[in-house]
Design a protein that fits this description.
489 residues, Substrate Binding Domain Of Dnak, Chain:A, Domain 2, 7 strands, alpha+beta, 3 domains, two-stranded antiparallel ribbon, SH3 type barrels, 48% helix, 6% strand
Length: 489
């Protein structure tokens, strides 16, 4: 078995070597080559036909892939419309029906492209590789025939004729001629026949393709007109006021409860600018409809009110840079800024809370502070904004001052904030005492301990109470942040 395999391998190598030698001699002009102009034309036509068929098959496959993607996008769009289009709106059932019609149209169109266009085109293209192999084999057999013919001619021209070798060369030449002529005759029949099939095949493929496309386009146009009519009717119903929401005459007033202990140091009375009422009075403030402010009466004397204000101011003295603990009591949030998270483990907060139950205010009588409540003023600020201070120069410029009566309110500098040695445009610096995660694109997030450089609002008229504009020193990110989540340094 090994000898047989070795003999076949040697014979194959010898055959390839003989063909290579013959082609070199033909290319150099030292050996003639059998020429068949008719077959050469057949081969040129076949090559062009194969190239065009492969290109058409590739583009139809890509077209079908894109149609399936468009079908998926259309189906997703109608599903979203079905969820967005509320059941009580006019035409809800019609919208669902048209969505089903569109899905059926695209499904049928993709099936037609697959079964009636791409599948026959694939069968048409698959026959070219087999014929190409026959053409290549015919070329090799023609080289073998020319090689055997040249060997016989050389033996016949030799001075000493060897009849045995001449006879063997004649037999080999005859065998090569028979093999070559059999392939050549077969291709003479197949190539013209295949070439004539190009027009019927392409015409049939294009006919099924564009007929299916015309159907889906026409039916899709009808679906689009129906959907347009549904949307137009919905717009007309909306213009008539069919879907308008009933609005209440006025917002519901907030509930207000008075504190029970006027001597509590942690009383939030410092956050309200209401005047001191007579001792012993216990009346609730009324919500003014036009102004939107809430009045709270207090049962404290003027002396107690002053003491509470002094204690509250002292509790917001700036901490040294080395201290990272939050202030002893978290400031109540204003309406436009979030409330910092409570820390049950903070020893400063626990220490500030009174332990005597007789001095603690009744939880049921604590005033609601979800919105700024005043008696004579329109707005309140952070604790340090309640403290008056003189104009300060920041980096060579006068810091903008708060103005009222419709004028611009600039960013105030709290007491204790260091303004020396800061870059131009930086008012002062603050350190985060609570973690904050931004809730809008124009805000910044920060962790506890991060340092932020406070700068002026780009448009002072857009400044919101309780909010500052700053730049994080760690990332140079600029944005808004709640002031009561930080302390000045």
């Amino acid at each position: 078995m090994a000898d047989i395999k070795g003999g076949l391998f040697a014979k194959t190598v010898q055959k390839h070597a003989g063909r290579a030698k013959e082609k070199i001699l033909q290319n150099l002009g030292k050996a003639d080559r059998t020429v068949d102009d008719v077959f050469d034309e057949y081969e040129i036509n076949f090559t062009r036909q194969q190239t065009n068929a492969n290109r058409l098959h590739k583009e139809v496959s890509n077209y079908l892939r894109c149609c399936r993607a468009l079908h998926g996008a259309s189906k997703s769009l109608y599903e979203t419309l079905g969820e967005v289009y509320e059941p009580e709106w006019v035409g809800h059932e019609l919208l669902y029906a048209q969505a089903q019609n569109s899905d059926m149209l695209w499904t049928d169109f993709c099936h037609k492209l697959q079964d009636q266009t791409l599948a026959p085109l694939t069968a048409y293209v698959q026959q070219f590789p087999d014929i190409r192999k026959k053409i290549d084999k015919r070329g090799r057999k023609l080289v073998d025939y020319d090689s055997q013919r040249h060997q016989l001619e050389n033996l016949q021209r030799a001075r000493s004729r060897d009849e045995y070798k001449i006879a063997r060369a004649r037999d080999a030449l005859e065998s090569a001629r028979v093999t070559y002529e059999a392939l050549n005759k077969e291709l003479y029949d197949e190539l013209p026949q295949l070439y004539d099939q190009r027009i019927p095949n392409i015409a049939a493929h294009l006919q099924t393709l564009f007929a299916a496309e015309a159907t889906v386009m026409a039916e899709s146009s009808k679906v689009a007109k129906e959907l347009e009519a549904i949307a137009d009717k919905l717009s007309k119903e909306c213009a008539k006021g069919t879907y308008k929401v009933k609005r209440a005459a006025a917002p519901r007033p907030l509930s207000v409860i008075e504190p029970s202990s006027p001597h509590n140091a942690n009383s939030p009375s410092m956050w309200y600018d209401g005047g001191v009422e007579e001792e012993g009075s216990n009346s609730h403030g009324a919500l003014e409809g036009s102004e939107g402010t809430l009045d709270i009466t207090k049962t404290t004397t003027e002396e107690d009110n002053v003491e509470n204000s002094i204690e509250a101011k002292e509790s917001y003295k700036p901490l040294p840079d080395s201290e990272e603990a939050p202030p002893t009591s978290s400031p109540p949030p204003v309406s436009s800024s979030p409330e910092p998270p409570s820390d049950n483990n903070n020893p400063s907060t626990d220490e500030a809370a009174p332990t005597d139950s007789s001095t603690q205010p009744d939880n049921n009588n604590r005033p609601t502070i979800s919105a700024p409540v005043t008696q004579n003023k329109e707005e309140t600020g952070r604790p340090y904004e309640e403290i008056e201070f003189e104009d300060k120069k920041v980096n060579g410029t006068v810091a903008p001052q708060a103005r009222t009566n419709g004028e611009v309110i600039g960013t105030k500098i709290p007491p204790g904030a260091t303004t020396d040695g800061l870059p131009s445009g930086i008012l002062y610096r603050v350190r985060a005492t609570y973690k904050y995660t931004r809730e809008d694109v124009d805000e910044i997030s920060f962790e506890v301990g991060e340092v932020i450089q406070v700068v002026e609002y780009e448009d002072p008229e857009e400044q919101e109470e309780g909010w500052l504009t700053g730049i994080k020193e760690s990332t140079s990110e600029k944005g808004l942040f709640p002031a009561n989540f930080t302390r000045p340094i």
